[in-house]
Task: inverse folding
């Protein structure tokens, strides 16, 4: 009896080498997906730089960076949700709710069953406010993952709940003077910390950079990132492979709530007040940034780099329209048209890629049929 042993072909030889062209095409496709957002950003900057001499000044660039940072941080939370194939419409209201919580804590917290008022320190206020944002995200994730409710419906309902709680906490009044705190109470330093500009950059920009690095590591260097992409691509297959799908779904909404909570604190420091309309439309800007950055709304595709670029596209476009004096009504029309165009380009690109893959599969099948030996029947 004889046995035959086979040795695996070296990488790049035989069948393995046939996968290289497809890998190159996938890499090229990823470059094109993110490249279109970068090209759009360059075009926007070039157009408005020609139309206005004030567009690329240091002061205006700093202003753009600050505003972009708020949207980008929320968009990073939206990215992980969309990568899973979900959506979170409540992040804007969560921004407003965390701002209202922070404002009320600066006013003082009435202790139950006593007449005493507690004034927490700044770091305690920040932790509680951000914790409220994470709590909202956790509730979203729990309802979606455990009860199998539609993300759109759950987060739409939470949008109203969070916005309503914001109005209840503020009772129709903006909180302004109390935010500076009092030295005797030990709760001062809020504006000095969160409205400062280390090395000339707003603190929101530094937070954006830190979050971008952390989210990039999370998505590309950890098992959670691999689970997230897997569940977004094919949830059933990921579940059969041992991926904790329910846990992943819960955690992504907690991350989205974390990002919204941080932005709520930063925005209160930025405008020096807590208002009922704080965070309005942030969810739409976040979704737009993620989509423009090349993420697929169906899930499974998207990057931190693309999301940040998408946020800058929206920021530079909005700022340029203001500088050249475009009507606020037309600003919304133009911004909406850009978002639709980005989604249309993405869909066209996916259609072209699917057709290319289908043609390649047909060609490979025909080649395999030609190369297969003809059966000799009963000649043996």
Result:
């Amino acid at each position: 009896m004889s046995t035959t042993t086979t040795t695996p072909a070296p990488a790049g030889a035989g069948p393995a080498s046939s996968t290289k062209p497809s890998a190159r095409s996938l890499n090229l496709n990823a470059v094109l997906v993110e490249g279109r957002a970068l090209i759009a950003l360059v075009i926007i900057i070039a157009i408005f730089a020609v139309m206005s001499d004030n567009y690329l000044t240091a002061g205006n660039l700093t202003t753009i960076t600050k505003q972009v940072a708020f949207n980008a941080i929320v968009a990073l939370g939206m990215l992980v949700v969309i990568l899973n194939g979900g959506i979170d419409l409540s992040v804007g209201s969560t921004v407003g709710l965390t701002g209202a919580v922070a404002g009320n804590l600066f006013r003082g917290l009435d202790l139950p069953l006593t007449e005493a008022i507690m004034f927490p320190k700044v770091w305690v206020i920040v932790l509680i406010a951000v914790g409220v944002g994470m709590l909202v995200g956790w509730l979203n994730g729990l309802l979606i993952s455990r009860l199998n409710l539609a993300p759109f419906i759950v987060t739409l309902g939470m949008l109203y709940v969070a916005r309503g709680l914001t109005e209840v906490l503020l009772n129709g009044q903006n909180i302004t003077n109390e935010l500076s705190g009092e030295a005797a109470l030990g709760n001062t330093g809020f504006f000095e910390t969160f409205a400062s500009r280390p090395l000339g950059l707003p603190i929101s920009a530094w937070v954006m950079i830190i979050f971008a690095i952390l989210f990039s590591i999370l998505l590309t260097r950890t098992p959670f990132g691999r689970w997230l992409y897997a569940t977004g691509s094919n949830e059933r297959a990921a579940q059969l492979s041992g991926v904790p799908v329910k846990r992943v779904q819960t955690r992504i909404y907690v991350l989205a709530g974390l990002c919204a909570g941080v932005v709520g604190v930063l925005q209160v420091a930025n405008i020096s007040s807590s208002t009922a309309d704080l965070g309005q439309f942030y969810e739409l800007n976040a979704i737009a940034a993620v989509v423009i950055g090349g993420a697929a709304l169906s899930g499974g595709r998207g990057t931190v780099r693309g999301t940040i670029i998408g946020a800058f596209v929206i920021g530079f476009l909005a700022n340029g329209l203001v500088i050249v004096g475009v009507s606020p009504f037309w600003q919304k029309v133009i911004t909406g048209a850009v978002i639709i165009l980005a989604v249309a380009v993405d869909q066209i690109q996916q259609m072209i890629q699917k057709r290319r893959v289908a043609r390649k599969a047909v060609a490979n099948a025909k080649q395999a049929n030609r190369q297969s030996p003809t059966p000799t029947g009963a000649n043996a």
The CA atoms of residues 95 and 264 lie 4 Å apart. The two ends are 22 Å apart (CA to CA).
